[in-house]
Amino acid sequence: MRTKILKLKMILFALVVFAAGCIVNQEEQKPTIDENLFSFLDKAPKVLVEKEKLPDWLISIVELYEGGGELGIQTPLQVSRGIWNEREIYYLYSPIYNCPLCQIYYENGEGIVWSGDGADFNNFRSTSKNWVLIYQVAPEFFNRIQ
Q1: Any bridge partners for residue 137, and if so which?
Q2: ∠ at Cα 112 (142, 79), nearest 5°?
Q3: What is the structure's pLDDT at 70?
Q4: Which one of 55, 80, 87, 136 is least enclosed by Cβ atoms within 10 Å?
Q5: Comparing C-alpha atoms, which of 129, 141, 144, 132 is closest to residue 46?
Q6: Residue 4 DSSP SS3
Q7: Which SS3 state, helix, strand or coil, does residue 135 take?
Q8: Residue span of the structural domain in which 58 resides
Q9: Averaged pLDDT, groups of 10, the chain, 146 residues long
Q10: What radius of gyration do the chain's Cα atoms show?
Q11: Count of structural domains within the chain
Q12: Cα separations (Å) of 30 from 67, 116, 127?
């Protein structure tokens, strides 16, 4: 019983640290965007791939959401792939993560850094293309909210 309580405390601590780090990152970026950030992804087709076909850097992130970390808890995650400025990019969406702009990566795992005025993000929204939902952790969560 004490082990379960300790695990729960560790989970809560990890989530607080995770959220705090993103809040700091949000303060630095502050793009001007509307409420429905990623509405352009709503119509993306679902073409799920096996985890082994994802880039190595992405597999390690996905495994954390699947419960592969010390805490062993599965967390909902959707991974979408698209093209922007002729580069492959990945967008990771999880309902527990409060910084959606912090989870967009180039194909090599490098996070995209947005300008302070949001102009590059607005360009991203209008010029990114070929979006496909390629992987899900806890898909039953997303099936309930659609």
Answers
A1: 77
A2: 20
A3: 67
A4: 87
A5: 132
A6: helix
A7: strand
A8: 2-145
A9: 54 48 48 56 88 96 83 86 94 81 90 79 86 90 64
A10: 16
A11: 1
A12: 31, 5, 20
